[in-house]
């Protein structure tokens, strides 16, 4: 390693921080990389409980590009397929009347030829177990969408990063400073050329504790419920008409959820919203016309940014964040981490 190599600290050992560390240490020119895996002293990272759906299609062209690029890279890499446990499942995305599905679908096909097909309301009802949909609804059926294990991907990337020379620190981080530096909870102050806060839902909390601007980042409650319901023929799906989203669970049953309206939540104090779980069951009964029994409900939270997108954002010279997608990094983190590493060392 060259003596003048850039010294980089990445605070956060979830899927975003770990992949960024792996990308950065392997980037042309080399860098000395420290990864702080217990970035805020919070509970276990969200990678372990993430749903892990990877699809290319999103309702806008801007959001579709990074997602489709990431999925194409996973499918095209033996290493990433193995690390992530990728398996093709297909996916369905239902949009309300008036939505333009064709342009984003064309972006998906540019990265994943033959993957995306736009179908009308009647085609969806005929092929999938929807009892009804509003007139004018349109959907995208995505053949190459699939499922990964974010925790498995994070674990493999962490092992590879350490093997490539990344120094892994398990000490909790107390704060970061504009120098830039990382101050650990055990009293050390470590200075770097670049510091990146990639602590997911804990990023706003760490920035506030460091007396730094939160910079448009907000936490939001998310949850899903494991339901017993006969939804034969339905794989991972999103229905923007009802708000429902879900996928079959590996152990049987179906994971179902609805968007929450709870913003600014504390990631260290998450608990299931039972009223939201009841609304999930009621909505699923109405949309699919079948019995739905709610079992276990898992609550978590994620970090959002407006405008959305997982990307490197500057807080000042040498200080950055890498978080704030549209809820969950799994869909875009492979491509986003590659671009962020290049930008970090430019």
TrEMBL record:
Domain FAD dependent oxidoreductase: residue ranges: 7-341
Pfam family membership, one: DAO
Family matches, as Gene3D superfamilies: D-Amino Acid Oxidase, subunit A, domain 2 (3.30.9.10), FAD/NAD(P)-binding domain (3.50.50.60)
Domain of life of the native organism: Bacteria
GO cellular component terms listed in the entry, alphabetical order: cytoplasm
Listed name of the protein: FAD-binding oxidoreductase
Organism per entry: Streptomyces chartreusis
């Amino acid at each position: 390693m060259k003596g003048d190599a850039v010294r980089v600290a990445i605070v956060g050992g979830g899927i975003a921080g770990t992949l960024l560390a792996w990308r950065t240490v392997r980037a042309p020119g080399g860098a000395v990389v420290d990864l702080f895996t217990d970035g805020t002293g919070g509970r276990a990272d969200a990678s372990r409980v993430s749903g892990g759906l990877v699809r290319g299609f999103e309702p806008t062209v801007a959001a579709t590009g990074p997602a489709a690029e990431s999925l194409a890279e996973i499918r095209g890499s033996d290493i990433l397929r193995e690390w992530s446990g990728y398996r093709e499942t297909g996916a369905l995305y239902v949009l309300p009347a008036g939505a333009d599905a064709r342009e984003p679908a064309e972006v998906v096909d540019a990265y994943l030829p033959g993957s995306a097909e736009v179908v009308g309301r009647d085609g969806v009802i005929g092929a999938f177990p929807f009892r009804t949909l509003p007139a004018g609804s349109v959907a995208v059926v995505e053949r190459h969408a699939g499922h990964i294990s974010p925790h498995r991907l994070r674990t493999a990337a962490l092992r590879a990063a350490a093997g490539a020379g990344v120094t892994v620190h398990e000490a909790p981080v107390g704060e970061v400073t504009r120098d830039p530096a990382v101050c650990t909870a055990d009293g050390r102050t470590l200075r770097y050329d670049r510091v990146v806060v990639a602590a997911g839902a804990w990023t706003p909390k760490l920035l506030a504790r460091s007396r730094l601007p939160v910079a448009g980042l907000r936490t939001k409650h998310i949850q899903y419920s494991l339901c017993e319901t006969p939804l034969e023929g339905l794989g991972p799906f999103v229905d923007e008409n009802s708000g429902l989203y879900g996928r079959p669970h590996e152990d049987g049953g179906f994971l179902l959820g609805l968007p929450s309206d709870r913003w600014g939540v504390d990631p260290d104090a998450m608990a299931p919203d039972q009223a939201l779980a009841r609304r999930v069951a009621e909505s699923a009964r109405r949309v699919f016309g079948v019995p739905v029994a709610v079992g276990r409900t898992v609550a978590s939270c994620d970090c959002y940014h407006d405008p959305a997108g997982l990307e490197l954002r500057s807080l000042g010279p040498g200080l950055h964040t890498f978080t704030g997608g549209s809820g969950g990094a799994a869909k875009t983190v492979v491509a986003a981490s590659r671009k962020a590493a290049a930008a970090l060392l430019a």
